[in-house]
Structure formats: structure tokens, C-alpha cells
């Protein structure tokens, strides 16, 4: 027999009547109605205050139809990304890391896929850059690449203006600032802070190298395309995707060259980007030089490899050529940059022509800009690279 709490608390000898228990609601009917009304009012006020409803709360049914072109509620970041890549290749973007073998510095860059290059070539037959001669373009499977047409060559058509008569009579120096196109800020600094006579060299990487190259040409800079080539310590030191390699056939390397050539337009020539092993190997270098010469381009050897065969190979093709005499910011300090510029001046006075290359480091741009202002007073003329090439050839 189970005892209840009342039975246990009853005094001995007494009995209590068991009370009938009633089930009671925790609230009255009026309270329940008030709660329901309160919930309704809260819901109504929420809709009225926070929902943009032009019908003022009247009964309605809504069907949301989204289209990428008309949806104003598209996230801002997505809009910005689409806007920034509107001229970039439409294929899958890839992020790659370039490693500097000497310093170990890593730099991430984003490039577009091949499919985007093809689509860009088919959907935009007209060049995105002002002043591009459409006759000097030929369609490849990656996009538009330079070609000789009607007796015209990209080297002569896209050479920057210069007083060549004056240049022939006095010492000249050509300065090429390279590594541009990756990093819009440093590229813009080089374009805007350096005078038009400075030649600018662009790598094929970056989200939109064509836009930056166009801006450089709009500021009357002559531009070059830097072609990544295999260094001795590859792949530990990797120039980037589509690098020309000594292990590939000439057809494979030329196909990769076409990919680089299609990344932007309006350049007068190409230059090696790294490439100590590749440029020293005649069997792989010769087809590249032959192809570039056939397309009416000049060639700049950055001077980093004493074993480069570029000079003899370009001579065999009667191709405009120059080799850099000094890397101006090999030691990126003000004192060393200034010291190298003095050496460049001395060489120009001795030989008539000198070529220096530099990267777009802030200190390099600042020292170059200051130095260039003093050249006229020392009887030296700053000229675009093509002018220095032509003077060296004629001399």
C-alpha cells in the first residue's frame, strides 16, 4: 500500500478525508487570449517596421525571382569582384606562388584560366587598348597575339616616341623597370612617377595585366612582355605557370609562348623573366627567338645570365636586341642604387649606349625619378629601349 504525502503528515490516530484533486490550467482563458493578441501585435509591428512592403500590410503573396543581371541585392563584395574582373579572363582563376630563389620571398598571384582567354578572344575582337593596330593581331587558341602585317612590325609601331636624331649624337641610357602587372599599386607608381622615356616590362600574371598595360601606354611608356623561362634551380625557384622549360619540345614551348603573348597587347618586344638555364640552352632557345622575330618583336636580355645565347640567336634572325648592362637595384639601398647609376653613366659616355634594369621597389622608383632629372645637365639622354636598340644596331 502506497501512502500519500497527506497520510504521512497526519497525526497518529486521526484520519483525514482525501481531497479530490482538480486539474487547473496555468492561465485563464482571458490570459491565453491576451497572449495570442500580443503575439499577433508583435508580428504585425515586425512586418510593418522591418519589411519593405509597399502594400502597407495588406494580404499578399510574393514570389522571389533572382537574375544575376538585375538583382540589386547582390552582395557588394560579389559586385566588386565582378567589376574588377570584367576585363580579366573569364575562366577559372588560379592562385600561384612565385618564390625568389635568392631571398626566399614568396608572392601569391592570381591568373585566369585558358577558357577565359579563349572566350575573351572570341567575344572581344577589338583590342581593349587604345592605339592597338588590329592588323598586327592574329588569333591563337589562347587569344590575340602579335603578327607582322602590311610591312608593319609591332617593334616599330609600338616603339615610344624619341628624338632619334639627337640620340644619335650623344650618349644615351635606356632604363627598363620590370616585374609589373602583379600588384596594381607598385605598377601604378612606376607608370605615374617615371617619365615616358622609361620602358616598362610586364609579367603575364595578375588578374588584369591588359588594363595596367593600357594605362602605361596611355602615359606614353613603351612596354615589353616578360616571358617566364626555366632557371637553374627550377622548380625550387619557379617563375610561374606556363614557364618555358628545357624538358619540353619546341612545339610545347611555343604553345606556352602563345599563352604569354595573348595576355595583353601593344608591346614592342619580349624579355626573359628568370631563365638562366633556358637561355643558355640553344636547342630550346632558338625556336623561341625565331618565333618572336617572325612576329616582329625585339628582345631584351636582362643580363642575369652570362651564359645566355640570346645575343647570337637574335643576330642570326636580324632581330632588334639589347642586353642589360646593370641591374640598378641588385642591392636595394639608396647608396648602392646611386652608385650603380653612376656606373651606368660612365658606360654610356664610353660606349655611347647603356641599358639598366630595375624592379618596381618604392626606393628604386624614387631614386630613378630623382636621378633622371639630372641627366640633361650631364650631357646624357634618357631614351626608350627601342631607341637604344636601334642606335646600337646602327653603330
Automatic annotation (TrEMBL):
Keywords for this protein: Membrane, Transmembrane, Transmembrane helix
Keyword Nucleus: no
Basic and acidic residues: bias regions: 69-81
BP term (GO), one: carbohydrate metabolic process
Pfam family, one: Polysacc_deac_2
Membrane-spanning intervals of the chain: 25-51
Segments for region (Disordered): 60-98
InterPro entries: Divergent_DAC, Glyco_hydro/deAcase_b/a-brl
PANTHER family according to UniProt: DIVERGENT POLYSACCHARIDE DEACETYLASE SUPERFAMILY (PTHR30105:SF2), UNCHARACTERIZED YIBQ-RELATED (PTHR30105)
Name by which UniProt lists this protein: Polysaccharide deacetylase
Species name: Bradyrhizobium jicamae
Organism lineage: Bacteria, Pseudomonadati, Pseudomonadota, Alphaproteobacteria, Hyphomicrobiales
Amino acid at each position: 500500500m502506497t501512502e500519500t504525502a497527506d497520510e504521512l503528515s497526519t497525526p497518529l490516530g486521526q484520519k483525514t478525508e482525501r481531497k479530490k484533486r482538480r486539474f487547473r490550467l496555468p492561465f485563464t482563458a482571458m490570459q491565453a487570449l491576451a497572449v495570442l493578441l500580443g503575439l499577433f501585435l508583435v508580428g504585425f509591428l515586425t512586418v510593418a517596421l522591418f519589411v519593405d512592403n509597399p502594400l502597407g500590410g495588406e494580404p499578399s503573396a510574393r514570389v522571389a525571382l533572382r537574375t544575376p543581371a538585375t538583382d540589386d541585392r547582390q552582395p557588394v563584395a560579389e559586385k566588386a569582384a565582378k567589376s574588377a574582373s570584367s576585363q580579366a579572363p573569364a575562366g577559372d582563376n588560379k592562385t600561384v606562388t612565385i618564390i625568389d630563389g635568392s631571398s626566399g620571398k614568396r608572392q601569391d598571384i592570381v591568373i585566369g584560366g585558358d577558357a577565359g582567354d579563349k572566350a575573351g578572344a572570341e567575344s572581344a575582337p577589338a583590342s581593349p587598348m587604345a592605339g592597338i593596330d588590329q592588323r598586327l593581331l592574329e588569333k591563337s587558341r589562347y587569344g590575340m597575339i602579335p603578327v607582322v602585317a602590311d610591312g608593319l612590325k609591332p617593334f616599330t609601331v609600338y616603339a615610344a616616341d624619341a628624338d632619334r636624331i639627337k640620340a644619335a649624337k650623344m650618349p644615351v641610357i635606356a632604363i627598363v623597370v620590370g616585374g609589373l602587372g602583379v600588384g596594381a599599386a607598385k605598377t601604378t607608381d612606376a607608370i605615374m612617377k617615371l617619365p615616358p622615356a622609361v620602358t616598362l616590362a610586364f609579367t603575364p600574371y595578375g588578374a588584369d595585366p591588359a588594363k595596367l598595360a593600357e594605362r602605361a601606354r596611355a602615359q606614353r611608356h613603351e612596354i615589353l612582355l616578360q616571358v617566364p623561362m626555366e632557371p637553374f634551380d627550377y622548380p625550387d625557384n619557379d617563375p610561374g605557370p606556363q614557364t618555358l622549360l628545357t624538358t619540353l619540345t619546341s612545339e610545347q614551348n611555343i604553345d606556352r609562348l602563345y599563352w604569354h603573348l595573348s595576355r595583353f597587347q601593344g608591346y614592342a618586344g619580349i624579355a626573359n623573366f628568370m631563365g638562366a638555364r633556358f637561355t643558355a640552352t640553344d636547342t630550346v632557345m632558338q625556336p623561341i627567338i625565331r618565333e618572336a622575330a617572325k612576329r616582329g618583336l625585339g628582345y631584351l636580355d636582362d643580363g642575369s645570365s652570362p651564359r645566355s645565347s640570346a645575343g647570337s640567336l637574335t643576330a642570326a634572325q636580324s632581330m632588334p636586341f639589347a642586353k642589360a648592362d646593370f641591374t640598378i637595384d641588385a642591392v636595394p639601398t639608396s647608396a648602392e642604387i646611386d652608385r650603380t647609376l653612376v656606373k651606368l653613366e660612365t658606360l654610356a659616355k664610353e660606349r655611347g649606349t647603356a641599358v639598366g634594369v630595375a624592379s618596381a621597389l618604392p626606393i628604386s622608383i624614387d631614386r630613378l625619378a630623382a636621378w633622371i632629372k639630372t641627366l640633361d645637365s650631364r650631357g646624357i639622354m634618357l631614351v626608350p629601349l627601342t631607341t637604344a636598340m636601334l642606335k646600337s644596331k646602327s653603330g
